[in-house]
Design brief:
3-stranded antiparallel beta sheet; 5 strands; alpha+beta; 132 residues; single chain; globular; 4 helices; Alpha-Beta Plaits
């Protein structure tokens, strides 16, 4: 499942309704960060791109709501992963960098990248790259 996180119920409902219009089933759950909406990973590329584009637009709306309600807050971005030993880990990323990543990669791809980097840090391989 691909997961999308929201910090505002109204915005999460808009996302779920849009997914429903596209014929995408959603599962909702609350976690410590906010409301998570999960959708199947095996979506058609066109449908997945429409959903990602809509999510990005909603994130802009969400940021505007936060900035209006709390103008002194700083922008932050993070990716949550699970380390090899099972511990959860939050990787903080400069918001501008996260924005640039999201222009090229899906949320799932960014998560896979962060997980791959974490695994390489946990289990370094100093062999030359030309050796497999």
């Amino acid at each position: 499942m691909m997961e999308y996180i929201f910090f505002n119920d109204s915005i999460s409902r808009r996302f779920a309704e849009f997914a429903q219009v596209l014929g995408i089933p959603c599962q909702e759950r609350h976690d410590k960060m906010g409301l998570v909406i999960a959708v199947p990973e095996d979506l058609d590329d066109l449908v997945a791109n429409r959903l990602e584009t809509y999510y990005a637009m909603l994130m802009d709306d969400q940021a505007e709501l936060v900035e209006t309600a709390e103008p002194d807050l700083k922008h932050v971005a993070a990716i949550s992963i699970t380390l090899a030993d099972g511990r959860p880990c939050t990787i903080r990323i400069e918001p501008a960098m996260m924005g640039r990543l999201m222009e090229c990669l899906s949320i799932d791809e960014i998560h896979q990248l962060a997980t791959t980097i974490a695994r390489s840090v946990e289990n370094p391989d100093d062999k030359p790259l030309c050796h497999t």
